[in-house]
Amino acid sequence: MVRDQHDPRFGFGTRRGLVVGNYCHDVLFRDDVVLAESLGGAASFISAVLDGLSVPYDLVAKVGPDFAYSTTREPIVIPTSRTTLFRAHFDSEVDGDGHGDRILKRVRFCDPIRPSDLPESNSGFDFGMAVGVGGEILPETLEKMVEICDEVFVDIQALIRAFDGVDGTMKLVGLKESGFFHLLPRIRFLKASMEEVLFMDIEEVRKECCVIVTNGKHGCNVFWNDGDLQIGPFPTNQVDPTGAGDSFLGGFAAGVVQGLSVPDSALLGNFFGSLTVGQIGLPKFELRLLQRVKDEVRRRKMQCISCHERKDDEMMKFVKVAGYDQFHASLVAAKQISTCPVQECQREMPTSPRAVEQGILPQCTGQSKLLINYVYEEPIQTVDSKP
């Protein structure tokens, strides 16, 4: 874990968070051809958003000595393990909603994150994010997170993913059978995709915590005990859907902890999700765009200052306060600022395993180190789950 309490970028009086989830190596295939290698893991996508919006946080992640990327928060290196490796296989054919088939395989698994890996409870955090992708977050680890964090955001993929013991193919299990269900009343927000929400009873779960369901180009829906809302999308040209939900959760959490309402925060989440699908692998956000977004968030917060006398009214957090549509329009305008042009990514991305072999990696995937043994060449190994 790395602490940055005195990082001058963050200023003073800002809420500090704790992000928990392993970094990964991702290999992306399209129609059985290697598309790209990238830094993966929800923690990496969320870090990109939180760093971009200057939200301070500590991070707990584990990797092996083979970890191939430079990151803003150094992970815990486990000498006897190897970095979690995923292969994501995409089909070029998409349905009417722009969704294509994806088969996700966990080829290697680093150590789980245990309660003892988290900070001592007396340190305290304003918010926490449980964002495992490979089964690394244990029930007892999440239980400690809710003890040391004032409010906790959870991605359901950290709770309900299971992996085949032979080839590592990912499948989903019911939330009630996951071993985490009893912790729902202590969770503030639970994020799920349209596929994942089928593995829980949303009418039951919404009575325990706020549920946000992402739905690709249709935006997202927010469900709580007394109501629900539909939050509009940001149209984009989808290049790679990997990490879109992670970036959404990063943007959503950043909005909430900076004082925005839930609807405004969900808009911010949709915004960063749309930016992510327009790039390959880990997104790269242009500095001018980030500054524009921070200005709009600050302006929106000031616009809603008149509602602060009712800030203790829980219902007010879910109301689309006057100016919501204008905030949406301002983010649409901000999105016109180019991040990493899609054409440039496509021109630089490898189109064959040989291209990757020669070190021609996409330039939009973060700061990578060249791998000596290319992960896509290794046979899929038996996944040994660790206790």
UniProtKB/TrEMBL annotation:
Keywords: Kinase, Transferase. InterPro entries: Carboh/pur_kinase_PfkB_CS, PfkB_Carbo_kinase, PfkB_dom, Ribokinase-like. GO terms for molecular function: kinase activity. Gene3D superfamilies: 3.40.1190.20. The keyword 4Fe-4S does not apply. It comes from the Eukaryota. Residues 211-281 form the Carbohydrate kinase PfkB domain. One of its GO terms (biological process) is myo-inositol hexakisphosphate biosynthetic process. Belongs to the carbohydrate kinase PfkB family. PANTHER family: HEXOKINASE FAMILY MEMBER, INOSITOL 3-KINASE. This is Inositol 3-kinase.
